[in-house]
């Protein structure tokens, strides 16, 4: 049977009430914190301690690059512009691009120096040029995090250098990953570059997944002694993208193996299904004291869901609404909720809107309906 016919046959109108969420499908991972997201639908396929605070380490640099990409997109900077290297940037330890104090460095080189080489020095060059000081730029980073819905993130520097007040969560870092891919299609390709040479020093990208044939095209690794090894990763296969953020692993080998395993699991065990197109009428719901007995309801945006492959036949679609929507109803009023559920996934809820206006019955019609309700227990 065609999937859409199957879905329509599953729709059941029920009285509004609480629906219990199904538990997320599980796969064991040695990462202490992890989250897996289907990019197109936004569905969370797996989460493990996703809201625990972590030291994001060099995954912080995704926000530094995000703010740099914003200025490029808005025309405030160009790839050919150059930015000055301060002594602070030149002296910074850890992973380096090896910029020289007093020199000017092209923006495009700095992008590669941050993404490919994970240069702490390059991050500070960008922060000071864009924010005046690294501290001021960190404030802007945190403000942007809030704007992106990263509700438990605080940045104190541009590189991820350890600081007790510098923290995030894998859920927040996933939001940043999704926003980077979504907002900068013209610049995201830098995350897939495998190597970059600057000052005659060639360095390989620290993302191990780029060297495997799994569709990986980003994003950023991170490591500190206190936080362990982490990675924000993304892969694209046959037009379908998966984003994984995993953290708290004990070695580079474990980080590579666990993130790859989560990506493979997402593609193997989950599939995408289009349930309704944008503007499609879903069903009719009853109207109380209206000039029409029902009103059609439609979905505003197309609905694609990610569902465990083994649960497809058990997928249920319900329209939740009041027993009868009271008239008058205006076209576009939110009058119901579509709930999609299946074993192994959390329920998905989206609003439904009235497809037409329904006016109130006249006085005598309302009286007749009220009498019918009182005497016979039903309303015409």
Account of the protein in words:
- With 380 residues, the protein is α+β, with helices and mostly antiparallel strands.
- It has 2 domains: 3-22 and 277-376, Peptidoglycan synthesis regulatory factor (PBP3), Domain 2; 33-249, Beta-lactamase.
- Helices cover 28% and strands 28% of the residues.
- It has 9 helices and 18 strands.
- A 7-stranded mixed β-sheet has the order 1-15-17-18-13-12-16, with helices on one face. A 5-stranded antiparallel β-sheet has the order 3-2-10-9-8, sandwiched between helices. A two-stranded antiparallel ribbon has the order 4-5.
Secondary structure layout plus pairing:
Blueprint: H1 3-10, E1 12-15, E2 33-38, E3 44-48, H2 61-73, E4 82-84, H3 87-91, E5 104-106, H4 107-115, H5 120-131, H6 134-147, H7 170-183, E6 195-198, E7 201-204, E8 216-224, E9 228-237, E10 240-249, H8 252-269, E11 270-276, E12 281-288, E13 294-298, E14 303-308, E15 316-321, E16 325-326, E17 334-341, E18 348-354, H9 363-376
Parallel strand pairs: 1-15, 12-16
Antiparallel strand pairs: 2-3, 2-10, 4-5, 6-7, 8-9, 9-10, 11-14, 12-13, 13-18, 15-17, 17-18
Question: What attributes does this structure have?
Answer:
2 domains, Beta-lactamase, 380 residues
What is this structure, in a nutshell?
With 380 residues, the chain is an alpha+beta fold.
């Amino acid at each position: 049977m065609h999937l859409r016919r199957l879905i329509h046959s599953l729709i059941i109108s029920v009285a509004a009430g609480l629906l219990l969420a199904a538990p997320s499908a599980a796969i064991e991972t040695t990462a202490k914190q992890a989250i897996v997201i289907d990019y197109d639908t936004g569905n969370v396929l797996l989460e493990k301690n996703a809201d625990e605070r972590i030291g994001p380490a060099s995954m912080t640099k995704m926000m530094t690059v995000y703010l740099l990409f914003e200025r490029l997109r808005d025309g405030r900077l160009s790839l050919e512009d150059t930015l000055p290297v301060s002594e602070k940037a030149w002296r910074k330890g850890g992973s380096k691009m090896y910029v020289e104090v007093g020199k000017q460095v092209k923006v495009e080189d700095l992008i590669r120096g941050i993404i490919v080489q994970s240069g702490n020095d390059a991050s500070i060059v960008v922060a000071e040029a864009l924010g005046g000081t690294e501290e001021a730029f960190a404030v802007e980073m945190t403000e942007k995090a809030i704007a992106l819905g990263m509700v438990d993130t605080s940045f104190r520097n541009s590189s991820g250098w350890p600081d007790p007040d510098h923290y995030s969560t894998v859920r927040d870092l996933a939001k940043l990953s999704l926003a980077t891919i979504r907002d900068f299609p013209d610049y995201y390709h830098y995350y897939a570059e495998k190597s970059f040479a600057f000052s005659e020093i060639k360095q390989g990208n620290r993302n191990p997944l780029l060297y495997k044939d799994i569709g990986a095209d980003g994003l950023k690794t991170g490591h500190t002694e206190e936080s362990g090894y982490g990675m924000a990763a993304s892969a694209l296969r046959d037009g379908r993208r998966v984003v994984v953020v995993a953290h708290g692993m004990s070695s580079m080998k474990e980080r590579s193996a666990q993130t790859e395993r989560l990506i493979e699991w997402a593609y193997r065990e989950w599939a995408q299904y289009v349930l309704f197109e944008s503007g499609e009428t879903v069903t009719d719901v009853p109207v109380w004291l209206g000039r029409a007995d029902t009103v059609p309801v439609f979905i505003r945006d197309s609905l694609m869901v990610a569902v465990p492959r083994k649960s497809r036949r058990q997928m249920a679609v319900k329209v939740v609404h009041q027993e009868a929507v009271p008239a008058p109803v205006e076209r576009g009023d939110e009058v119901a909720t579509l709930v999609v559920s299946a074993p192994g996934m959390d329920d998905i809820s989206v609003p439904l809107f009235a497809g037409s206006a329904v006016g109130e019955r006249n006085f005598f019609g309302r009286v007749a309906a009220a009498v019918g309700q009182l005497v016979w227990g039903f309303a015409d």
